[in-house]
Design a protein that fits this description.
The chain is of the alpha+beta class and about 140 residues long. The chain has one domain: GMP Synthetase, Chain A, domain 3, CATH 3.30.300. Helices cover about 50% and strands about 25% of the residues. The chain contains 5 helices and 4 strands, in the order H-H-E-E-H-H-E-E-H. Strands 1-2-3-4 form a 4-stranded mixed beta sheet. A hairpin with a 4-residue loop joins strand 1 and strand 2. The radius of gyration is 20 Å and the shape is globular. The N and C termini lie far apart (about 60 Å).
Length: about 140
């Protein structure tokens, strides 16, 4: 009888464990909601006026956009190419861009935009590119 109770308890424990574990798609959704509600409103970086996250569940992809007050020109584009990767690295270090999600296969397309919403710089973070990016 004790053996049967132990087996049932173990089965319930296993089911509870699997149910409580979130898959990457659920984590992706949670991240986007959390980013837009908590990180984006308080986000501060030089020249950044707005940041938003958008999730693409079927593609396992998150798009982060950083809108700036900078005019699209070669000088600003060159400066963005230097400062933007540093900003992303800082966000990864501060877990504002979770390394765990990237390692689980979620791709981050990160855009740094001019005041007219044209692209200054774009970085794609994947499990493989993350290693090179953090060097």
């Amino acid at each position: 009888m004790l053996k049967k109770i132990s087996q049932i308890a173990c089965a319930i424990l296993l089911v509870a464990t699997f149910v409580s574990c979130k898959n990457a798609k659920q984590k992706l959704q949670e991240y986007v909601v959390t980013y837009n509600k908590t990180i984006a409103p308080s986000f501060r970086a030089e020249n950044v006026t707005l940041t938003t996250a958008r999730g693409y569940i079927n593609d396992d992809k998150i798009e982060l956009r950083f809108e700036t007050n900078l005019e699209q020109n070669e000088t600003n584009k060159a400066a963005a190419a230097v400062s933007f990767p540093k900003l992303i690295k800082l966000m990864i270090d501060n877990d504002q861009i979770p390394r765990q999600l990237i390692e689980e296969g979620v791709q981050f397309d990160v855009y740094f935009l001019a005041d007219d919403n044209t692209v200054f710089d774009k970085e794609v973070l994947t499990g493989e590119s993350l290693k090179d990016f953090l060097k």
